[in-house]
Amino acid sequence: MARTLNPAVHLVRREAFVDAALRLTQTKGYEQMSIQDVLDAVDASRGAFYHYFDSKQALLEAMVDRIADGALAAVAPVVDDPDLAAIPKLERFFSGIAQFKTDRKALMVEFIKVWRSDDNAVMREKVRRTMVDRVAAILARIIEQGIAEGVFATESPGETAAILMMLMTGFQDTATDLFLARQANAISFQEAERTMSSFTHAFERVLGARKGSIHTVDQKTLVEWFG
Fold it and tell me: How many CB atoms lie within 10 A of CB 19?
C-alpha cells in the first residue's frame, strides 16, 4: 500500500529546513553554509532533506519565496484598505516592503551576495518572473484606483503595472549596485539619493501622476542603506 502523505506535516517539516537555512545564512553566510549544517540544525537525515529539496539551490529558492511571502503579507493590509487613497497606498506599499527588508538588513545583505552570483542566474530569473506576476497584479489594483481618483492618467492598469515592474527590477538592481558602491566608499550619499530619486520621477511619468506627488523611498530608509 502506498504511503499517504499528510500535506500539513509535509509543509511543517519542509518549513523547518527553510527556517534553519535562513538562520544559518544570516549567521554564517549562504556560501559557507552546507547542507550538513542544515541537517544538524534540524536533526534530520540527508534523505529527509532530499525528500523536500533536490539541491541547495532549491532550498535557496524556497528561502527567497519565504522572504517575498513575508514582505507581501506585511503590506497586504495597506493594499486592501478601502479608505486609503491610491498615492499613499502606493507609497506605503513601497515603504512597507523597504521596512520589511530593513528590519532584516543582515539577512538581506547576505542575499545580495548570493543574488549577484553567476551560479544563481537561472534561479534569479525564475524568482524575478514569479515576483513580476505577483506584484504586477497588486500594482494594477492600485493603478486602477488611482485612475478612478483622477491622480493617475493611464489607459491600461495591467500594462502600466507591467512597465512599472520593469522599472522596479532596474530599481532593485541599481539599489544593490549603489549599496555596494557606498560600502566601498566609491560614491557619496548624495549621488545615491539622486539616482534613487530619478526612479521615482520615472514612476510618476509612467503613471501620468503630477511631478513630485509620489515618494517611493523615505529619507530614513535612504540613510539606513546608503548613509
Answer: 15
- Contact call for residues 77 and 68 (beta carbons, < 8 A): no
SS (H, E, C) 165-214: HHHHHHHHHHHHHHHHHHHCCCCCHHHHHHHHHHHHHHHHHHHCCCCCCC
Kindly report the number of other CB atoms within 10 A of residue 218's CB atom.
14
pTM: 0.86
- Say which residue, 214 or 130, is predicted with more confidence: 214
Q: How confident is the model at residue 3 (pLDDT cuts 50, 70, 90)?
A: very low
Residue-wise over 33-68: b if at least 16 C-beta within 10 A, else e?
A: bebeebbebbebeeeebeebbeeeeebbbbbbeebb
**pLDDT band per the 50, 70, 90 thresholds, residue 225:** very high
Under 8 Å between Cβ of 18 and 59: yes
User: In the chain, what are the domains?
Assistant: 1-54 (1.10.10), 55-226 (1.10.357)
In this predicted structure, what is the pLDDT of residue 2? 41
